[in-house]
Amino acid sequence: MGQYPTSFDRDDLLKCARGELFGPGNAQLPEPPMLMMDRITEISGDGGAHGKGHVLAEFGITPDLWFFDCHFPGNPIMPGCLGLDGLWQLTGFNLGWRGWTGRGYALGVGDVKLTGMVRPDRKMLTYKIDFTKAIQTRRLTMGVADGIVEADGEVIYQVKDMKVALSES
């Protein structure tokens, strides 16, 4: 750790999506419209609730976001799976940020609670991820983390035991 900054703006995230941040074959974010955050405000390998790493990130909500028109016509709500995907994206980003190699992929999530909705009048989503495990062995590179998503300061999604791995293949 220490080879990358501890915050990233949208241009940095787009570089990561193009494979330019962590290098070819390593952790990548998706490009818009699937990129589910605008900036990472904090990242560590030893911070957070368990001292095993954390990520804080933000996503500005505007009424013209692509998913509002189709989910659902006349009743626009951001799909909860997109918030979960944002949490997975950031968990994988943290593994790449640590300098660990391989392509990222989600392995699962233990528990998901959706207690609120993102409608077009919301202004800001905040992602908060706390790692419970970060494992790098000869055979396995994986992060396990808990996460929450807040909409304008209100907790709306909570997940436990998200698992993201990096693989050379």
TrEMBL record:
Enzyme Commission no: 4.2.1.59
Task: Name where it's found.
Answer: Cytoplasm
Record key words, sorted = Cytoplasm, Fatty acid biosynthesis, Fatty acid metabolism, Isomerase, Lipid biosynthesis, Lipid metabolism, Lyase
Pfam families to which the protein is assigned, alphabetical: FabA (PF07977)
Reactions performed catalytically: a (3R)-hydroxyacyl-[ACP] = a (2E)-enoyl-[ACP] + H2O
Query: Could you tell me which pathway this protein works in?
Result: Lipid metabolism; fatty acid biosynthesis
Q: Which residues form a coiled coil?
A: none
Broad EC category: lyase
> Oligomeric state and partners?
Homodimer.
Tell me the protein family, please. Belongs to the thioester dehydratase family. FabA subfamily.
Q: Which NCBIfam families match?
A: fabA (TIGR01749), PRK05174.1 (NF003509)
Q: What protein name does the entry list?
A: 3-hydroxyacyl-[acyl-carrier-protein] dehydratase FabA
Record gene name: fabA
